[in-house]
TrEMBL record, chain A:
Membrane topology qualifier: Multi-pass membrane protein
Source organism per UniProt: Anaerosacchariphilus polymeriproducens
Record-listed Mg(2+) 1 binding positions: N22
Gene3D superfamilies recorded: 1.10.287.1770, P-loop containing nucleotide triphosphate hydrolases
Name by which UniProt lists this protein: Ferrous iron transport protein B
Matching InterPro entries: Fe2_transport_prot-B, Fe2_transport_prot_B_C, FeoB_Cyto, FeoB_GTPase, G_FEOB_dom, Gate_dom, GTP-bd, P-loop_NTPase
GO cellular component: plasma membrane
NCBIfam families: feoB (TIGR00437), small_GTP (TIGR00231)
Gene encoding the protein: feoB
Residues that bind GTP: 11-18, 36-40, 57-60, 117-120
Record's function text: Probable transporter of a GTP-driven Fe(2+) uptake system.
UniProtKB/TrEMBL annotation, chain B:
Protein name: Ferrous iron transport protein A
Organism: Anaerosacchariphilus polymeriproducens
Domain Ferrous iron transporter FeoA-like: 1-72
GO MF assignments: transition metal ion binding
Domain of life of the source: Bacteria
SMART domains per UniProt: FeoA
UniProtKB/TrEMBL annotation, chain C:
Cross-referenced Pfam families: FeoB_associated
Protein name: FeoB-associated Cys-rich membrane protein
Length: 662, 79, 48
């Protein structure tokens, strides 16, 4: 007989469930979707002795009602036997709230093993949990203390799963008050009578008493003749009363003074200082991205330069055709290599964002920004997808799903691309360094600030125009501050780097070849004169519109158009355009600056270019995501046009003002 | 009184949830039930609050804070 | 001769990249990253 057990991980959001899951499976997850719904299903595998343990990570949920799709998916997964054993991951530091789900899981009738996580935090706070009493009050289920962070208890947990699976377990159930138990019996017998093969009639009876929508629908015939009184509130209260009693039995030295988190929150969520502190933190993130990133960047540049020369010489030595050499060295290596030099900056950016998220600070940001978001008719929760937008717009647009209100979602989707995504960072770094030298960092930072400012202004305008009063229902858990987990962050940052390299090797690779082609060919075939190339023709056409913004040069126009495929391509296009094969800061820049000056492109133009890049249409991937999430071509086209218009308008303003002032 | 009118660091007991059923149910699933204890940790002028209930911290918006009806918890430290 | 091989290699690689991109788009994976799908919100983000 195959020794295989299917295990489902269930727990509240923020209980460390996913960190624990990752500890078992590493980054080798398989991620898919539950059939027919947009809830993701993460699967992995672990081995214990000669058992294969198939792990499924279910979404973080607070209860098993039928109010949200995550809850429905989770409970159906268990009811349909897709899981043999449940690992209930519980945050020991938030026992009271976590146990509510535990009681519900126990009622489902499948074997449950509790993984009591964050035990180290309990210790730090001077609290203690009676690990002998705990299983007893929960109907004798195994309780295994684990620390996903320190990777302790992992094998013990698997052993408990295997052991518990093999032994015959009694059907545990929390006993309610007599009144409710009577009702349960009545309904249970009816259910069994009319639906002989019903699984776990007691659970179904309880759900009917609670007025659960999904169960009511399925067993409508039971309800037909009697009207069942809604016992939902009572049942919830009785569960919580039981939990309070349990806590008395198992938790000791519950802290009465402010924990570390409360102290930190007093500062970070301060009425007045909250926002400035947030901006300050973002400023530091930025500073690190530039400063440390640039330190490493020099090394990468040297490597790429060396590689470029090497290939160049090799191609000459084998007598390769000139056009081939040009395509490879001036096209591919210039474009892709140029983009790769920014990898260190990207790495630092994502590392910083990951640290902020994992430590628990990001949730506070929703609270801090709630006031401003409110003026735009959104809740602070809308700010979180926007912060994600500093990484990449695609997941940011998708994250708007956490906003239930459709109007709020559309509004937030509109604003998210204004959050300068990481792909635009190379544009700022390149041009800020070239034209603003000592002030480079400040200039680049200013772009980020402008992005936020313009988004807020736009949101305010929309808020005024869109008269409908929006529900500003902020409800978000603020987890305890914790030391960021090295492994979690490592996996996350590595994924981002992988993505970046993949993008370089695919999208940017192709874009560079295409760019090279349109610059070196025209109607008569290959040409030495780049100003007569296809690219030049295209650029000159669009250049007319961009002229008032100081961006009328055809090279600039072409680069911007190419930027539709991926924002980084704007930079790689410049490298291909001006033939900078060796991309080191010292050598490459001075030549590039000269070339740019020759076509009339100076500091003010550079700033205008950066502004335009910040605001104009996002990359194709984002546009596609917007179309998918909004389900409306009209809306998507509207967003694209609006952004083009805003970009044009603002950069024209900047350029014309800049010209007068400087 | 509504919890939005409450003071920081005082313990309150929930009397009623005057809210949209969807939100009410969600709060109840989180343990904010009649009789449960709530403490305000942080207040902002626009009505957003940080509260602590059943050992967990929540940031809530004005709409919710104005819908939680509560009363001050008596017999605590001689109040 | 070597040139020919190089051209071929680049051509094949480019073809593979384009094919992959098209199949990704069909599946609804737009960001070009090496993931298995992002319909539940990008799983690669910590903010699940």
């Amino acid at each position: 007989m195959k020794k295989e057990i299917k295990v489902g991980f269930l727990g509240n959001p923020n209980c460390g469930k996913t960190t624990l899951f990752n500890a078992f499976t590493g980054a080798k997850l398989k991620v898919a979707n539950w059939p027919g719904v947009t809830v993701e299903k993460k699967e992995g595998e672990a081995k214990y002795k000669d058992w294969t343990i198939k792990l499924i990570d279910l979404p973080g949920i607070y209860s098993l009602s039928s109010y949200s799709i995550e809850e429905k998916v989770s409970r159906n997964c268990i009811l349909n036997d897709e899981v043999d054993v449940i690992i209930n991951v519980v945050d020991a530091a938030a026992l009271e709230r976590n146990l509510y789900l535990t009681l519900q899981l126990l009622e489902l009738g499948k074997p449950v093993v509790m993984a009591l996580n964050m035990m180290d935090i309990i210790e730090e706070r001077g609290m203690e949990i009676d690990l002998h009493r705990m299983p007893e009050v929960l109907g004798n289920i195994p309780v295994v203390p684990v620390s996903a962070r320190k990777r302790t208890g992992l094998d013990v947990l698997l052993h408990a799963v295997v052991h518990h699976y093999q032994e015959e377990s009694e059907e545990y159930s929390l006993k309610y008050s007599q009144e409710i138990e009577n009702e349960i019996s009545k309904i249970k017998s009816k259910l069994v009578k009319f639906h002989e093969d019903i699984v776990n009639p007691r659970w179904h009876a309880i759900k009917l008493l609670e007025g659960d929508e999904e169960v009511k629908e399925k067993y409508a015939d039971i309800l037909k003749n009697d009207s069942i009184i809604d016992y939902e509130k009572k049942i919830i209260n009785e569960k919580y009363n039981y939990i309070e009693d349990m806590i008395q039995e198992v938790l000791f030295n519950k802290e009465s003074k402010s924990a570390f988190t409360d102290k930190v929150d007093e500062v970070l969520t301060h009425k007045i200082w909250g926002i400035p502190i947030f901006l300050g933190i973002m400023g530091i993130v930025f500073f690190l991205t530039f400063f440390i990133g640039d330190l490493l960047k020099g090394r990468v540049e040297i490597l790429i330069g060396w590689f470029s020369d090497f290939i160049n010489n090799y191609l000459i030595s084998i007598g390769a055709a000139n056009w081939l050499k040009s395509m490879i060295v001036d096209g591919i290596i210039a474009g892709v290599g140029g983009i790769l030099t920014f990898l260190p900056n990207i790495f630092i950016l994502f590392l910083a964002l990951a640290l902020l998220e994992d430590s628990g600070y990001m949730a506070r940001v929703a609270y801090i920004m709630d006031g401003i978001m409110g003026k735009a008719g959104l809740s602070g929760k809308a700010f979180l997808p926007m912060v994600l937008g500093f990484g990449c717009s695609v997941p940011a647009v998708m994250a708007t799903r956490s906003l239930e209100n459709e109007r709020d979602r559309k509004k937030t989707i509109l604003l998210t691309p204004f959050m300068s995504c990481s792909a635009k960072l190379p544009i700022y770094i390149l041009f800020a360094n070239m034209f603003f030298k000592e002030h480079a960092m400040l200039v680049a930072f200013s772009l980020y600030v402008w992005g936020v400012v313009i988004a807020v202004i736009l949101a305010l305008i929309i808020g005024k125009v869109d008269k409908i009063k929006n529900s500003n229902t902020l409800l978000i858990e603020l987890p305890e501050y914790k030391q960021p987990n090295v492994r979690t962050i490592g996996i996350y940052v590595w994924n981002k780097i992988e993505d970046y390299l993949t993008k370089a090797g695919t999208t940017i690779f192709i874009a560079s070849i295409i760019m090279w082609f349109i610059l070196n060919f025209n109607m008569n075939g290959m040409t030495e004169d780049v100003t007569s190339s296809f690219g030049a023709m295209l650029g000159k056409g669009f250049g007319v519109i961009l002229a008032p913004a100081g961006l009328g040069m055809w090279q600039v126009a072409v680069a911007l158009i190419a930027g539709l495929s991926a924002k980084e391509v704007v930079v790689s296009s410049f490298y291909v355009l001006f033939g900078i094969g060796s991309v080191s800061e010292a050598a490459g820049y001075s030549q590039l600056i000269l070339d740019l000056n020759q076509i009339g492109f100076g500091a003010v133009n550079a700033y205008s270019l950066m502004i335009f890049s910040l605001l104009y249409t996002p990359c194709i991937a984002t546009i596609a995501t917007i179309k998918k999430e909004s389900n409306s071509l009209r809306y998507t086209v509207g967003v694209v046009l609006l952004q083009l218009f805003v970009a044009w308008l603002i950069s024209v303003i900047f350029y014309q003002t800049g010209r007068i002032l400087f | 009184m509504k919890i939005s009118e409450g003071k920081i660091h005082v313990n309150y007991n929930v009397v009623e949830l005057q809210l949209d059923p969807v939100i009410r149910r969600r709060l109840e699933a989180l343990g904010i039930t009649e009789g449960s204890r709530i403490q305000i940790l942080n207040k902002k002028r626009n009505g957003a609050f940080i509260i602590k209930t059943r050992g967990t911290r929540w940031a809530i918006g004005k709409q919710i804070s104005e819908g939680i009806i509560c009363r001050e918890e008596k017999n605590e430290k001689g109040n | 001769m070597a040139s020919l091989l190089i051209i071929l290699a680049i051509g094949v690689y480019a073809g593979f990249v384009i094919k992959r991109q098209i199949s990704n788009w069909k599946k609804g994976k737009y960001c070009g990253s090496n993931c298995d799908g992002c319909s539940g919100g990008c799983h690669k983000d910590l903010n699940k």
